[in-house]
Amino acid sequence: MAWEEYVGNPHVHTPYSDGTLYHADVARAALAAGLDFVIVTDHNVWVRDVEGIYSEPGGRRLILLVGEEVHDVRRRPQANHLLVYGAEAEVAQYAPHPQRLIDAVRTAGGFCFLAHPFEKAAPRVGEPAIPWVDWEVSGFTGLEIWNTMSEFKSLVRYWFNALRYARDPEAGIRGPFPPLLALWDKLLAEGRRVAAIGGADAHGRTYHWGPFQRVLFPYEYLFRMVNTHILTPRPLTGDFAHDRALIYEALRRGHAWVGYDRIHPTAGFRFSGQAWRAEAIMGDELPLGTGATLQVRTPLMADIRLVCNGYVVKREERATHLTYITSEPGAYRAEVYLPFRGRKRGWIFSNPIYLV
Questions:
Q1: Three-state DSSP class for 185?
Q2: If both were cysteines, with which of 155, 167, 200, 289 could 222 make a disulfide (CB 3.0 to 4.6 Å apart)?
Q3: How would CATH label the architecture of 268-356?
């Protein structure tokens, strides 16, 4: 099957909660950055009548969808933020009870990802950690494995670093937190199906350091950083209901990868599997039979790693292809690293292929 590729950002805020651009301006910024879709996820508010198809002169289209980032505002310290997509009812009233919240999302026809599940606090600049802490829950679709603003927060724990990275944020962005990747692998090794996304967590805030102030990470800039690329079985057509369904199905099924597009576009990446009379892409199950072949293809020479249940089972340096033949079941995912400004950076993190 020929798959269609699209790129978007599934974690964005507007002034309906704590962002600075309204939906039409968010869409314009996303179009300028070359995105195909964006999902607004304001805190504890389901904003209606703003979804739609936006276009620019020349015919490029973007679909703007509305989800929600739900959490218990009374909880101290803050934790357990949930990204909700596709629900046909407000679910914020269930925020104090994470399992009831996840169940309510599914009852309302939606699906959900744990937002920034691992974080580091930056107390010197007034930024607390907001991790996920209730790990006994079940029924969530996946994890937000890479959140640009969470990683930036981890870099500014001291004033010196805050000033340095405020001027040059790309110097510090390196990839998903290793403990979060380890947690993801642990869940996968337990046999759970856990998809991954990456997002901006865009707010467009102005930060103040003494006499200095700056809008860090404008929306358009963030939309060129960490994004989620999806594969769909049919093209987006400009019909809102059709395109919405395709995008949500790709995210729900894990037909996606997380890409750091700022250092080099990740478009064209592929991770696939072949077995006897069967094929799979990211997010799919593949019956092993007598064995399976997994293949990774990257758009640029890079360090490619194939990971199964937390272990690197094959690695290729300065390569654009990796092939691995196996008869061992497990959740296999690809990581790709690229040199940038003298340091190896995380570039691409695929969803798993499940060999069963």
A1: helix
A2: 200
A3: Sandwich (2.60)
